[in-house]
Specification:
The protein is of the alpha+beta class. The chain folds into 2 domains: 51-115, 434 Repressor (Amino-terminal Domain) (Orthogonal Bundle); 130-316, Beta-Lactamase. Helix content is 37%, strand content 9%. It has 12 helices and 5 strands. The chain has helices at residues 51-61, 66-72, 77-85, 92-101, 106-115, 133-146, 165-170, 185-190, 202-219, 223-233, 291-294, 306-316; strands spanning 151-154, 160-163, 267-271, 274-283, 297-303. The protein has a 5-stranded antiparallel sheet. Helix 2 (66-72) crosses helix 3 (77-85). The longest helix is centred in the middle third of the chain and has 18 residues, at 202-219. Residues 1-48 and 247-256 have low confidence and may be disordered.
């Protein structure tokens, strides 16, 4: 789901060979890091825009007053006002400090610095760069370590960077054209020829994913993410789905078929005659100093009931 770059490592059978490695699954899609974020060129900010309006936009987006921001950043409301109106040119330090307290994404902090007349502070290093070797190895170990449970790595627009054999298993039966790079996790999940027909609680899971993207769009400027949202939100929903709270399929309301209460909204997928239930967990890096790393997210699908655990362990043995 991103730029396709050559994988720099040997691919022995003992490695986590990624999507499509199982004989009965879809064709091979990717080894972890077959698809890597490429270096993108920073877009120049027009001088007429300036850093002031950009900072004001982030402050208003975060619903923070000038006074509150000044108190957080050890400044004054007067100084913040002068910066936003262009009466004062902020130092590089104050731009970064305000961005930090406004929780501005790392990529956009570079844009703020450019608008203020400074060089970008944060690199955007491709994942196949030699300096990223330790990161790649660590992420590959994470993906392998979660098997047989599904796990994948996505970027800020939900383009798939890498995935393990567990993901390949649940993608069995997905239309071939959706498995062509660039792959997108939201498209694979909600497309009528993707996982959507296999998701028993499609109505709830679709609503959860769309709401998740809406929150992200509200908190960051991302044309790519907005385009993905508009695409998947427009997909027809042939079947409204069954709520996990309906008590359908012999399950107790709010519980699994085995009667075990769900501790989070599950993704319920039909697979090879079995009803598998997963809960999603997302991990990101703490205080990233690189744009590429800042936009990576590791999503794991953990089994939500004993029946799913049993099936996955038997399928992975």
């Amino acid at each position: 789901m991103s730029l396709s770059l050559p994988h720099p490592f040997p691919r022995g059978p003992e490695q986590a060979t990624g999507l499509g490695s199982r004989p009965r699954g879809p064709r091979r899609i990717a080894h972890p890091f077959d698809y890597c974020l490429g270096m993108t060129t920073a877009v120049a900010i027009k001088e007429s825009t300036g850093v002031g309006p950009l900072l004001r936009g982030w402050r208003e987006r975060r619903k923070v007053s000038q006074l509150d921001l000044a108190l957080r950043a050890d400044s004054s409301a007067r100084h913040i006002s002068f910066i936003e109106t262009g009466r004062s040119r902020p130092s590089e330090e104050i731009v970064l400090r305000l961005a930090e307290h406004l929780d501005v994404p790392v990529r956009e902090r570079n844009s703020l610095l450019l608008a203020a007349g400074y060089a970008p502070r944060f690199r955007e290093t491709p994942l196949d760069d030699p300096s990223m070797g330790a990161l790649r190895e660590g992420l590959e170990q994470i993906l392998r370590g979660y098997e047989p449970y599904p796990a994948l790595i996505v970027d800020a627009a939900y383009d798939v960077i890498a995935a393990n054999r567990g993901i390949a298993m649940i993608l069995d039966g997905v239309s071939e054209h959706l498995l062509q790079p660039p792959l997108n996790a939201m498209r694979l999940t909600l497309h009528p020829e993707g996982l959507a027909p296999k998701i028993r609680n499609l109505r709830e899971w679709r609503g959860h994913l769309l709401h998740q993207m809406e929150r992200q769009i509200a908190l960051q400027r991302s044309d790519a993410l907005r385009a993905v949202y508009e695409e998947v939100a427009a997909y027809p929903v042939a079947d409204p789905g069954v709520s996990v709270f309906d008590g359908a399929d012999g399950a107790e309301a709010g519980g699994s078929q085995s009667g075990v209460p769900y501790f989070a909204l599950p993704l319920r997928i039909e697979h090879e005659g079995h009803l598998l239930s997963f809960v999603s967990s997302i991990s990101t890096f703490n205080t990233p100093m690189d744009v590429t790393v800042a936009e990576l997210a590791i999503e794991t699908l953990l089994p939500a009931d004993p029946a799913t655990v049993k099936f996955l362990r038997s399928a992975g043995s």
